[in-house]
User: What shape does this take?
Amino acid sequence: MVSASDLVPVLVLSGPIGVGKTTLLGEVADLLREVDEAFVAVDLDGLTQVFPRPAGDLQAMGLGAQNLAAVWVNAASVGARRMVLASVIETDYDLGLVLEAVPGADPFVVRLTADEATLFDRVRRREIGTARGWHLERSFELAESLRRTGLEDAVVESDDRPVREIGREILSVAGWPTPD
Assistant: This one.
């Protein structure tokens, strides 16, 4: 049994491709530094970039979770007490991997949203290579899938607002420290 003092607050920024998960991960990290909060910020996509993909794990989420566990051990050893994670949490399985990777994880999932025009524009500008079409299509699929599954604790819109304002809202809805 994990005691309350052993719980690890994990703020998960979820949402479709192009919604701003990575950008807001950086902003939330900056805001937490302003209030001198001990944390680690991780973009799970970076921990799943491997080829060939593990058999039976086409998105490499299992491998990503193993990598996340190692990151948490290392970050906690230097004083991190919280985690901010950017990752698409589409299923209970995805969330379960995070819970397994971080013993005592107490997750709070924020689903970021943006309208289709914003998603299209962001993905079109960012994805300039071979997989652009896939990213565009998958972004819209994810937006609908995430809305239907409802695994989030809160929803925050990321359209046409200053990044700092969105970051402060994320921390506020999660009940985390926020700079004045």
Observations:
- The radius of gyration is 16 Å.
- The chain has a mean pLDDT of 91.
- The first strand starts at residue 8 and ends at 14.
- The chain has six helices and five strands.
